[in-house]
Write a structure and sequence with these properties.
Number of helices: 5
Oligomer: single chain
Number of domains: 2
Radius of gyration: 33 Å
Keywords: Coiled coil
Helix content: over 70%
Strand content: under 5%
Shape: elongated
Length: 140
């Protein structure tokens, strides 16, 4: 059925989707035709709009404007989707970085991070430092 999804066509014909798919398995050429039928209405509508826009006798500014607005909406949605995907990749990279840092902190690795933290945990009178290195923590 032209322009309908499988679910819609099966509902109108009062058959189950599984029945349709079993039929398609027995007749593989029907699957190709079905995909064409699903898109036929949309394609035909675009052809009609294109004919209105390119009509030699009376081109339609209304259809041209309508078409451009839809194109802009589509481009905006695509840009928003790409931005959302980029943000998701950034968040996932940050999550992986935090996991790696957490794993390193929880391991017995005596890296520079643990040295700094272990010195910060000492009481003020036990911390070492002098005025030259900017680490003098003793009150004056």
């Amino acid at each position: 059925m032209i322009g309908l999804t499988i679910t819609e066509a099966c509902y109108l014909e009062d058959i189950s989707r599984s029945t349709w798919y079993r039929y398609e398995q027995k007749h593989p050429d029907i699957a190709t035709k079905r995909r064409r039928w699903e898109k036929a209405l949309s394609i035909r509508a675009r052809v009609v709009i294109a004919n209105k826009i390119f009509d030699k006798e009376k081109p339609s500014a209304y259809y041209a404007q309508w078409f451009l607005e839809r194109e802009m909406d589509r481009e905006t949605r695509n840009a928003q989707n790409e931005l959302a995907r980029a943000n998701a990749r950034k968040i996932n990279a940050e999550i992986e970085r935090i996991k790696a840092e957490t794993k390193r902190l929880n391991s017995n690795d005596e890296g520079i991070t643990k040295i700094v933290f272990s010195d910060d945990l000492k009481p003020d009178d036990e911390q070492k430092g002098n005025e030259n290195d900017g680490a003098d923590t003793k009150p004056k």
